[in-house]
Design a protein that fits this description.
mainly beta, Tubby Protein, Chain A, 12-stranded antiparallel β-barrel, 3-stranded mixed β-sheet, 3 helices, 15 strands, 11% helix
Length: 307
């Protein structure tokens, strides 16, 4: 699939302040703290301090992980990122358009899982983190048609004893993706349907925890605030280049079966995410509100087997 040239996109802010300059505001976590008695507060704070220290040691600090879950702040243009793939096509690194590292992902074909980490294994500090404890995971079914992104440490259960958390029933769901194919002109179009947790009117995210009584994210979405449905934008067949074509809004895109654009189901012409090949092992990833960094990155990696 090929792209067409258009107007340039908005540049990114540096990563020095993490990704807080990109993400939208959310309800304060302070309002979610347990309503403990005064005499229990000191004990609770000590336990939380130890928990955060352990999370930092494993590269899983909740305060940092949450930043990757927030949707990018509202903007008229797409925010620009790029993905670099390893030669074996099993490792991926997400960078801002300015070259700042954001996230690393590694696919395990035998386990049918992609693990996401918030550190770069190429850096010297990588040995300080536990590779057995990713921040997020994404699994796929045997026929590679359904994918599911999960957060390893649930936001709803983060202050509960382990035996009372959703880890006994599943994990916090971040996105569900279904693939299928359809003919368009003389080509074959790889399609996606995506369900992601929605947003409340105050901008805070819906937490998809199994203990909150919500149905699985794969259940058909009723277009309410609780979940949102995204679909791939259908390309057109171009007889001149004998290929399926999409307008990538300023990106010079190479022909690839992995190229795609996404839009909300109720606004099919309003592109909010696009992924396209720009080099032998490099892909552009541009997206905006209401997607988060991990959702967009994870969705792009579901093209792992697309040909």
């Amino acid at each position: 699939m090929t792209g067409q040239e258009a107007s340039p996109l908005m540049p990114l802010t540096p990563l020095t302040s993490w990704i807080s300059s990109w993400v939208g505001s959310s309800a304060s976590s302070a309002s979610n703290l347990p309503d403990e008695k005064v005499e229990d507060e000191d004990k609770w704070e000590r336990e939380r301090a130890f928990d955060i220290a352990d999370s930092l040691e494993n590269g899983l600090a909740r305060e940092i992980v949450t930043e990757f879950m927030h949707p990018l702040r509202r903007a008229s243009k797409l925010w620009k990122f790029h993905v670099i793939r390893s030669e074996d096509k099993l490792q991926y690194r997400l960078f801002s358009d300015d070259g700042d590292f954001l996230m690393y992902a590694r696919a395990n074909l035998e386990a049918r899982q992609v693990s996401f980490y918030l550190y770069n294994p190429c850096e010297k500090v990588a040995n300080l983190f536990n590779a057995d404890k990713p921040a997020f995971t994404m699994s796929w079914n045997a026929d590679r048609t359904e994918w599911r992104i999960m957060q390893e440490r649930c936001e709803n259960c983060q202050f509960s004893p382990k035996h009372l958390t959703c880890s006994c029933y599943g994990k916090q769901q971040v996105a569900w993706i279904r693939h299928h194919r359809k003919p368009v002109g003389d080509g074959i179009f790889n399609c996606m349907e995506i369900h992601v947790p929605g947003l409340y009117s105050d901008g805070s995210r819906v937490v998809w925890c199994p203990l909150l009584g919500r149905a699985d994210l794969s259940v058909p979405v009723d277009e309410s605030y609780e979940a949102q449905r995204l679909l791939t934008k259908q390309p057109t067949w171009n007889d001149e280049v004998e290929s399926l074509v999409l307008d990538f809004k300023g990106r010079h895109i190479l022909s690839s079966a992995k190229n795609f654009q996404l839009a909300l189901s109720q606004k099919p012409e309003h592109v909010l995410c696009q992924y396209g090949k720009i080099g032998p092992q490099t892909f552009s990833l541009d997206f905006k509100y209401p997607l988060s960094v991990v959702q967009a990155f994870g969705i792009s990696l579901t093209t792992l087997f697309w040909t």
